[in-house]
Amino acid sequence: MLYQWLRFAPLALVLAGCRGGLSTGQVGELGKGSFSYKCVANADPVCRESLAVEPYSVAAFFGLDGQLPAAVATGARFDLGYYGAVYDGLERLELTLTPATSQLVSSKGGYQAARAGAYAFLARSPSGVTADFVHVEVVDPAALELWARGQRIDGKLQLKRNESVDVGVLALGQGGTPLAGGAVWSWSLAGPQVAKIQPLANSKNGGTTADDEITLVAGSSQGTAKLGAKLGAISQTVDIEVTP
Amino acid sequence: MNLRIAFALSCAAFAAGCDNRTLELDPVTSPPRPVDIHARSVTIPVGVAVAVQARVFDGSDLDREARVELAASPHDVLGVDRGLDRGTFVLYGMHEGSAKLEVTIDGSRMDYWSASVRNQ
Question: B5-118: what fold?
Fold first, then answer.
């Protein structure tokens, strides 16, 4: 069991360092620099703090290999960085990252796309030179998955009395692609008071129950309840069973 | 007086007609949504960017020395930025709508292309 968790350690370190930091970067479409993904919210599944979701199952989609995430959820917040020493003749350009459209992509507190689509982000100088750019795919969430103990919860999650378990949620696009981006989640627990929802235990960044990870704490009595997660109009519910 | 006007008009017509250079814009990146660039027309989805190489032809001969400038009006529909490599530009859809792309070659305004920024 210990070995099973230890094999995630290198990736967990990357994940832990990701929040507020940067991935290694994806070369821009003009090859003049690299673009990196950055989380701006605790609720971004790219920068998880727990191992509720098996890291390797999402690594390829979330760009933990150095690329940008495969897709970001519509309405979710994220940020990008650009790295490149770019010269126009002898002049070193001061480049800032700008979305190609402000009609559909807001830049307040990170980026946020109002509807699904492919959106370009330009590394641009004030004089109107675009040194490089990259596109980010934005996708409407189509389904949610709940995970605990590194496995997707298949209908029911069992806890022993007084046990705590971290639970994470993933938004998936059509076709099952896990989606990046910080969204506002809502969690619910229906049924007898056999467990309660708490902000993620040991969160380094001050977790809340609107994050994509929470800690489920079983009470002292056995019984069943239903745990739900909701993102916009999409929701998912699993059964919780507290056993002796 | 009439002769002067006729002379001036014929000079203007000659000046306009004697430069039969044309511009081609060839995409050098692969945008994630279709971008249509045809003779004197650009259609691009809002939010999408494409880098193009501008090439000037004098008849069928490539004019490698020509200096091309592109500008869009209005400024908030189609974005046009210069690229770092000679003769490259980055076109991007800023807002849905129609625009004109002004083509200037060697300091002389030569042509207008129509541009359309459409929904994805």
Answer: Immunoglobulin-like (2.60.40)
Q: Are residues A105 and A27 in the same domain?
A: yes
In a domain, A110, yes or no: yes
Q: Which residues of A touch B (CB under 8 A)?
A: 29-30, 32, 86, 88, 99-105, 116-120, 122, 124, 128-131, 133, 135, 137
Q: Are A61 and A176 in contact (CB under 8 A)?
A: no
> Could you give the ipTM of this predicted complex?
0.85
In terms of CA atoms, which chain B residue is nearest residue A101? B94
How does strand A143-148 pair with strand A151-152? antiparallel
| Residue at A13 is within a domain | no
CATH of the domain at A194: 2.60.40.10
Nearest Cα neighbor of A78 from A104, A30, A49, A42 is: A42
CA distance A1 to chain B (A): 44
Range(s) of the domain holding residue A72: 22-139
Judge: A135–B31 Cβ closer than 8 Å, yes or no. yes
Tens digit of pLDDT for each residue in A207-239? 899 999 999 999 989 999 999 999 999 999 999
**Spans of chain A, pLDDT less than 70:** 1-24
Contact A30 B84 (CB under 8 A): yes
The residue among B63, B83, B52, B80 whose CA lies nearest residue B22 is B63
